[in-house]
Amino acid sequence: MKYNSVFDIIGPVMVGPSSSHTAGAARIGLTARRLFGKEPKWAKIHLYGSFAKTYQGHGTDFALVGGLLGYETDDTRMSKALDAANEKGIAIKFIEDSAKTDHPNTVRLIIGDDKESLEIVGISIGGGKIEITELNGFELRLSGNHPAILIMHNDRFGAIASVTKILAKHEINIGHMEVNRKDVGKEALMVIEVDQNVDDTILLELEEADHIIQISKIVS
Amino acid sequence: MFRTVAELVEIAEKEDILISEVMIRQEMDVKNKTREEVFAEMERNLQVMEKAIEDSLKGVQSVTGLTGGDAVKIQAYMREKKPLSGHLMLDAVSKAMGTNEVNAAMGVICATPTAGSAGCVPGTLFAVKEQLNPTREQMIRYLFTAGAFGLVVANNAFISGAAGGCQAEVGSAGAMASAAIVEMAGGTPQQSADAFAMTLKNMLGLVCDPVAGLVEVPCVKRNAGGSALAIVSADMALAGVQSRIPCDEVIGAMYRIGQQMPSSLRETGEGGLADTPTGRFLKEKIFGMSV
Question: Given CB atoms, is B222 within the 8 Å cutoff of chain A?
C-alpha cells in the first residue's frame, strides 16, 4: 500500500500553501541533497504537468530549493529559500517542460558541483508524500520514508549476495529491495530500504564488497 | 491491516473498540512504536492545529491579498448577531477558513490530508470541542479516527487535487471530519462510516480550479463548505440516517470520477473558476506584480 501510516494523512506539519506542491517538493529536494551527500553548487530543475503550470503560485520553486538547502517541510525559512540560495551563490535554473509524464506532479532535478552531478526524477503523490522514480537514468521506487542504501555495482553474479551477506551479519533487516540495470553485464543499481539507519562503518564494509562501484544512503 | 472502511468497521465491532483505537494499534504495529510515542506525535500535530487557529483569529493576510481576515469577520458577526446557521456551525466554518488563511499566508499548518484541505478536520474539532467538552485524549483520538478513514481513501483513490480534483481533497477532509465527529459524540463505528459516505457523496465531482494556481480562491471557502457539511452529515448519521451506497463504493465512485476529470480541472489553474474573467484578471494582476 502506498500509504501505511496515519501520519501520512494527519501530517506533515508544514509551511503552506500546498502539501503536494510545497511540502512534497521540499521533500524531493531534500532527498536529492541527501543522495548527493552535500550541498550542490548548481541545479537545473525541469517541471512537468501541474508542477509546471502552477509552481510559482504554490511555492514549488522555493520549496524544491529549500529542500536542496536542507530545509525540512516545517522550516519557516522556506519561503525565502530562493534568496538564501542566491546569497550562497548556488545557480538555479527552472525549466517548464511540456513533455507528458505519468504523474501530474513530476520534477526532474539535475544537481551538481565542480566535480560531479546527480539526476533524479521525483513525483509528489499527495498529502506531502513523494516517490523517487528515477536516479541517474535507473528506474526505481523510493519513498524516502525509510532509511535506504543505494548501491551502484557491476551486473555480475554474487554482487547482490555479497551485499545482503554483510547486512545479515550486522542483523539489518531489509524491508524492500530492488535491482535495476541498464544493460546485461553493465552498471546496475540496488535500492535497499531497511528498518534502521545504517552505520557508516557498515557502508565502508559494503564498499569493499565484490563488484561495488559507489554507495550512498538516505537517513529517514 | 484494514484496507477498506468495511474492514475498519468490522475490526472495531468485533473487538468492541473505537475506530481511533484500531488506528492507534495499527500505527504501533506498523511503525513498531509504543502507544506513548504515537500519542506524542499526534499531540504535536494537534498543537500545530491549535496554534494556526489562534493565529488566524488575530487576523492574517496572504502575500497576494486574495485571502485573509474572513475568519475574524465571522467571529465578530457571531458575537454581535444571532447566526442563522447556529453558533457551532459558524464556529467550525470560521476556524476551518482561518486554518486555510494561515496556510495561504505560508504559515505553519498540519496537512489533513493535504494543505489545501487542512481546515476541515481542525476547524470542526475546535468547534465541536466547545459543546462536547472532550478530554485531551479524546481530541487526539479525533485525529486518529479522521486519519483511519483518510488512509483508506489515499490507498484506494487519491487525496490530491492534481490527481483527483477537489473532491479528493476537501471531499476527503470533510468526510474524515464527519466520521471523527460521530465518534467523539458517542456514535458507533458504522455511524462514522455512514457520516463519511454522506459527506463524500455531496462532494463528488468537485473540481480543483484554483485562481492563478494559488491555494487561496476558492480553497479557503471550500474548507468552509466541507466543514459545514461534515457537521450536517454527522448529525444525520447520529440520528440514524444511513448511506444507501456503502462507504467503500462511494470512495470507488470518487476514484472513477477523478480519473475521468480532464487535467484542466485538476489543479492546473486552467479551467473552472480559474478560467472566469475575474479569475484570469486576478492571475494577470498577481503575476504582473511578480509576487
Answer: no
